[in-house]
Amino acid sequence: MDAELQESFREFVDSRSSALLRTAVLLTGGDRHAAEDLLQNALIKAAGRWQRIDEPEAYVRQVLYRQQISRWRLKWRRRELSVAEPPESPPVPDATATAELRLVLRAALSRLTARQRTVLLLRYFEDLPEADVARLLGCSVGTVRSTTHRSLARLRTLAPELAALAPDTGPDQPPSRDYSPVEVRP
């Protein structure tokens, strides 16, 4: 790989590795170590083909998905233990409240349709703009907006306790946009 290609690969890794790692963590069911290994293997494969890749992020995501599927298909998983004693962890203040919210969120997300979960994941977890989500899902921006709105409304009804996680809108902040349909009477 020449210097220019190597630099473009480094820039890609610097700019997109955190988002790709979040996706890998979700793919591995929250196992951060397995996610790091998954992402590292995907980046190694991408580095070998870097000059022929048109859309690097799409390529790396596809490799992540396929490698995770290959892991699922293995009949036997090897678990590694790299240390003799577990490391000490610092005390976490009121971890039960955080864990409860996480469980409530997970339960609420599981009651959404696959499309609703996907749109919310791409919009808020991956932090992609509506146009990119529409392009990835092969639909219009309006469909992404309406699906996002309906998904958030359903989450609010399924788990009203998640309102504590929503950012406050004070006098300094503009109100959030509401894309709900408005009834017009003549």
Structural commentary:
The chain has 186 residues and is an all-alpha fold. 61% of the residues lie in helices and 0% in strands. The chain has seven helices and no strands. It is globular.
Give a quick set of tags describing it.
186 residues; 0% strand; mainly alpha
What percentage of amino acids are in beta strands?
A: under 5%
Show unreliable segments.
Answer: 169-175, 177-186
Average pLDDT for all residues:
80
Helix/strand order, N-terminal first: HHHHHHH
The span between the termini is 67 Å
Helix content range: 55-70%
User: What class, by secondary structure content?
Assistant: mainly alpha
Q: Which oligomeric form is depicted?
A: single chain
Rg measurement, Å:
20 Å
Largest sheet: none
